[in-house]
Design a protein that fits this description.
mainly alpha, 2 helices
């Protein structure tokens, strides 16, 4: 069984990876939207598509972060022997 410290470090790294990927995806989307800004219809299409994808990616990143937080909390309770659910 890994120690709580190992789990905490792994959770921190995974959170960084999740949000770094989210940030990089946002920059790529902004670059694509900027590249298509002179083509009238494609500009509107890319803005709508990337806005929706950005919202979905944010929701997914928040859900993954919350799942990691729950896992870290379970491990903390297992290590410390906490039975208090709240």
């Amino acid at each position: 069984m890994p120690s709580y410290s190992d789990v905490q470090k792994a959770v921190r790294v995974e959170k960084f990876r999740i949000w770094f990927a989210w940030f990089c995806g946002g920059w790529v989307a902004l670059g694509i939207m900027n590249a298509t800004k002179d083509v009238r219809i494609w500009s509107v299409v890319t803005q709508i598509v990337f806005s929706v994808l950005g919202i979905l990616a944010t929701i997914a990143a928040v859900r993954m972060t919350n799942a990691l937080n729950k896992r870290a909390e379970r491990e903390r309770r297992a290590v410390l022997g906490d039975d208090y659910p709240g």
